[in-house]
Phage holin family protein
Amino acid sequence: MTTQTPAVPKDGQRTAPDEPVGALVAQLTNDVSRLVRDELQLAKAELKDKGKEAGLGVGLFGGAGAFAFYGLGALIATAIIGLSYAVPAWLAALIVTLLLFAIAGVAALLGKRHVSQATPPVPERAVHGVHDDLEALKGHQPEGKNA
């Protein structure tokens, strides 16, 4: 003959086998809420650690970008010096400068076109779709659509 011992919760309190159902439900609710609180604490700690790691990564990316920017400056200086073997140094610098301004102008025009296509930042088709759905629910037929 085996005897069953009551389960022992984490807090060390034993529950009697003949304890009322209401008390058991209250204890279960307590245990579940403690478990949820513990899980939230764990999630906060984990997010804090990941946030620190992400911050370090972003900082390193920023440093890499700064060094790449300086590298681009050195490459431009190299182009000017290399071109100065064929033409006077001032003309080499002027040619490289005009080339850089031309690239910047083309990039600005392309960027302006893309920004104007993206504005206003409202999902117009989705808004019209929701409006049509609401009208259909009200029993009206959407504008421009015939059955």
